[in-house]
Amino acid sequence: MQAQYLAGGGLEQYQAAPTGARMANHGAAMCRVQLAEGQDVYAKPGAMIAYDGYLRYEPVSQTFRRALGEWASGERTPLLRWAGDGALYLADMGADVLNLQLADEALSINGSHLLAMDATLQCAVEKVKGPAMLAGTGLYNVTVRGSGWVSVTSRGVPVVLDCAEAETFVDPDALVAWTTGLEVKARRSMKVGALVGRGSGEAVQLGFRGAGFVVVQPSEDTSDRLKIRG
């Protein structure tokens, strides 16, 4: 009967198609994670929209929580650990989803954009080395290392820029992630508003150069940048 409803109602096009990949997109704004026993995944709290099979979840361990430092401070638990056998569907307020497979690599991610990651990957909050963003302010990101899958979100369709081809400058509030090992520096410039009487002061961009890439979203959302004043 269920198959008849799907076929007769034109809903078959919305069924999740098996891909064989650990993490895969279902549409632009949904991540499908295939789980099996012993292949746990960490996911953002509240990101689960559905699952099938026999799955269970629990908060991260205190050891893992301590490794996350400031990101895990206060009452907010940064990640949940999912285990079992089945498919887990994740989304974050309709944001676009980008799934990446790391092969003994490291990725620096804006913490609020981390949707999911394999439990085999290492994760820590680290200060971005190189630029002094603003006087008295440090820029911190979540660094994920190892071999496995990681899923990040973007407010709109992201662009992935190759920093080996040319030095790349990005508004910090539009940054989603970048490969570690890139040379990072800060550049200051006059705000456009200052030229037309609608503002004053300086704008700051981050410059990236080297073998790697940056992921940039088409939005300058200052509310989700993990900044810690020191």
Question: What features would you describe in this structure?
Answer:
- This protein is mainly β.
- The chain has one domain (about 1-230): 4-Layer Sandwich (Double-stranded beta-helix), CATH 3.60.160.
- About 5% of the residues lie in helices and about 50% in strands.
- The strands form two sheets. Strands 1, 2, 3, 4, 5, 6, 7, 8, 9, 10, 12, 15 and 16 form a 13-stranded antiparallel β-sheet that branches.
- β1 (about 25) and β2 form a beta hairpin.
- The longest helix is centred in the first third of the chain and has 7 residues, at about 1-10.
- The termini are far apart.
- Residues about 130-135 and about 225-230 have low confidence and may be disordered.
What's the CATH H-level superfamily name? Mitochondrial biogenesis AIM24
Radius of gyration: 20 Å
CATH secondary-structure class: Alpha Beta
N-C termini distance: 62 Å
Q: What can be said about the biggest beta sheet?
A: 13 strands, antiparallel
CATH architecture: 4-Layer Sandwich
